[in-house]
Amino acid sequence: MKISVVMATYNGENHINDQLKSIETQTTPPDEVIISDDASTDSTKTIIKKFIKNSELNIIFLENKKNLGYKENFNLALTRSSGDIIFLCDQDDIWHKKKIETTIEYCKSKYALLYIHDVELIDDKNNSYGITRLQQINGSGFNKHNYVLGSATAIRRELLQLALPIPPKYSSHDKWLSDIATILEKKLIIPEVLGFYRRHSNNVSDSFLNKARKLRKIDLLAYRVKRMKYSDNYFNSNLIDAQTGKNFFYKKLLHIQNNKKITSEEILNIKKLYIHYSNQKEIFEKRNDYRRMSKISKLMLLPAELCRPHRKSIKGIRDLVEDILASK
Fold it and tell me: Is position 296 within any domain?
């Protein structure tokens, strides 16, 4: 089983060396490390080149002539990987020594397309906040199946064959990979802490999960209430993701007939993904029509809206509240 590590870098001089050392000291070393630098303007490239000279790791270093953006940079690095299992890697975290070894054990015992492990949160100086990401998720009541963190993710090559090239309009590269695995019900959460996830002191994010502290259910509720103020942005992002996913897998379907190497399982997966994103696009378009109505019209149509299939769940009711409160 060939192992690849894929890292995308950009102006990461402060912590890149620690990250590289933690890969080098793995109990199960990777067969290749693909590093794609996105035209860094600090000393990142110099640090990487110095590390390569003194390391026994098989490192392939790609240097972009111009800045492509993090999604396209990761896409480029992923296309150059050749492993059966590919580990996604950030430039500023630290891996536990047995991260690869433990993940590969799961890969051998439990089949999935994507594996994601727990991480311990640390600050700029490697001090622990005394909390892990899964503890935050469990404490807040957040749906753990929506847990997305690229730096804690490993994927099978079969997932790459479905997912590449990463569509530039999708919200993020790691969410794209995670969503596909989740839709196909082939995502596995590894409960062990296998890395340190750095939360910078100047980090600003709308996501409550990026808080470097323990979280409770009240935090999730407060986040959802706060998010209603920006529900249009959140809604539009999800609509674009649905449209992008549908278009992507529609094109995949068109090329099936000309691809003699594709397996029957791949064909079924592509069809399933196309159907899922088509359904999601239809739901978001119906919700969008409702959101554009006046408040009075929304209330008049509320009984009919409650009968729609996508409203018959707790999430559906929560979405309905957001749609009613959304501006015309």
Answer: yes
- DSSP one-letter string for 46-112: HHHHHHHHH--S-EEEEE-SS---HHHHHHHHHHH---SEEEEE-SS-EE-TTHHHHHHHHHHHS--
What is the rounded distance in angstroms from the CA atom of residue 118 to the CA atom of residue 189?
A: 8
As a whole number of angstroms, the distance between CA 124 and CA 198 comes to: 7
Euclidean distance between CA atoms 163 and 143, whole angstroms: 23
Between 79-83, 84-88, 258-262, the lowest mean confidence (pLDDT) is in 258-262
Question: How far is residue 101's CA from residue 98's CA, in Å, rounded to a whole number?
Answer: 5
Return all residues near 305 (Cβ < 8 A) that are at least 6 apart: 290, 298, 311, 320
What is the dihedral sign for C-alpha 164, 165, 171, 174? positive
* 171, 230: one domain: no
CA distances to 80, 245, 285, 308 from 238, rounded to whole Å, are: 29, 10, 11, 19
Contact 6, 86 (CB under 8 A): yes
Asked if 184 and 229 sit in the same domain, the reply is no
DSSP reduced 3-state for 61: strand
- With respect to residue 216, please indicate whether it lies within any of the assigned structural domains: no
| Residue 264, pLDDT score | 86
Rounded distance between C-alpha atoms, residue 272 and residue 263, angstroms: 14
- Reading the block at residue 114, the tokens are 């994507």
Q: For 21-145, where are the E strands, in sequence order?
A: 32-37, 59-63, 85-89, 94-95, 114-122, 128-132
Q: Check if the beta carbon of residue 287 is closer than 8 Å to that of residue 319.
A: yes
Cα distance between residue 190 and residue 205, in whole Å: 25
Contact call for residues 97 and 27 (beta carbons, < 8 A):
yes
Of 210, 236, 268, the residue that ends a domain is 210
CA distance 265 to 250: 17
Contact 148, 210 (CB under 8 A): no
Residue 134 region by backbone torsions, left for phi larger than 0, else alpha for psi between -120 and 50, else beta: alpha
Q: What does the pLDDT look like over 134-145, one tens digit per residue?
A: 999 999 999 888
Tell me how many domains the chain contains. Answer: 2
